[in-house]
Amino acid sequence: MKFFLDTAMIDEIKQAKAWGFLDGVTTNPSLAAKTGRPFKTVAQEILKTAAPLPVSLEVVATDVEGMLEQARELYSWGKNVVAKIPMTEAGMQALNILKKEEIPVNVTLVFSANQALLAAKAGATYVSPFIGRLDDVGEEGMRLIEDAVRIYKNYGFSTQVLVASIRHPMHIVEACRIGADVATMPFSVLRQLFKHPLTDAGLKKFLADWEKVPGNPFEKVPR
Ligand code: E4P
């Protein structure tokens, strides 16, 4: 299971990398807006910080020519760029061309098994089913991950299932049980993965008991 960070915040990317848990980064226009900084500046910092790991940067054009132009521009910023293209008719047409130019594509805003199938048939490197947003409208997002993983296995598609719109740690566990390839998560969820109250309580007790141990080999002046 690869861990991607769903963020445009450089400090978060640096911290995830320092922990050794960073396999890539995904961004979107909403995350870029939160930075309040010019997109090209932020994107290039992300690319540099994450290199050589893949970074998904999203096109904002909705027509084929516009998507192609933007995807090529984004890809010119770094060889670790993955062009994020929405699941639309124009998006799939653009993907068909970008594939020939060897520009990797992450198909975003995927909400059904048929959309996941189309993305794979079109030759996407990643498909991003948004499970949290499906949960939000009363559908079971994780069922879509099961379907996509099963369909790709049945037909030998190489497109990687990138679980997106992750809201909490159990989404990660479920995605791992199903065998999804990648999970992209907010930094807050990555931090939550470390947490267990028994770890905190256990550490507190060990440290308290350690005070009762005679002699401390780690102190310069042993007690
Ligand atoms: C990932 O590529 C998406 O941008 C992201 O996971 C969307 O998450 P959200 O539904 O929390 O906005």
Report on the structure:
The protein is an alpha/beta fold and 223 residues long. 52% of the residues lie in helices and 16% in strands. The chain has helices spanning 10-19, 29-35, 39-50, 64-76, 89-100, 113-122, 131-136, 141-155, 169-178, 187-194, 197-210; strands at residues 2-6, 24-26, 55-58, 81-86, 105-110, 126-129, 160-163, 182-185. It has an eight-stranded parallel barrel with strand order 1-2-3-4-5-6-7-8, surrounded by seven helices. Helix 1 runs parallel beside helix 3 (39-50) and helix 6 packs parallel to helix 8 (141-155). The mean pLDDT is 97. It binds erythose-4-phosphate.
Question: Any chance you could write out the topology, listing elements then pairs?
Answer:
Elements: E1 2-6, H1 10-19, E2 24-26, H2 29-35, H3 39-50, E3 55-58, H4 64-76, E4 81-86, H5 89-100, E5 105-110, H6 113-122, E6 126-129, H7 131-136, H8 141-155, E7 160-163, H9 169-178, E8 182-185, H10 187-194, H11 197-210
Parallel strand pairs: 1-2, 1-8, 2-3, 3-4, 4-5, 5-6, 6-7, 7-8
The chain binds erythose-4-phosphate (E4P).
- Radius of gyration equals 21 Å
Low-confidence stretches: none
Indicate the mean pLDDT: 97
Going by helix content, strand content and strand pairing, the class is alpha/beta
Number of E strands = 8
Number of domains: 1
Number of helical segments with 4 or more residues: 11
Helix content: 40-55%
The shape, in one word, is globular
Strand content range:
15-25%
> What CATH architecture label applies?
Alpha-Beta Barrel
Distance between the termini: 46 Å
The largest sheet has its strands arranged as: 1-2-3-4-5-6-7-8
Largest sheet, described in full?
8 strands, parallel, barrel
CATH fold descriptor = TIM Barrel
CATH class: Alpha Beta
CATH superfamily: Aldolase class I
Q: What sequence of helices (H) and strands (E) makes up the elements?
A: EHEHHEHEHEHEHHEHEHH
Could you tell me which ligands this complex binds, including any ions or cofactors?
Answer: erythose-4-phosphate
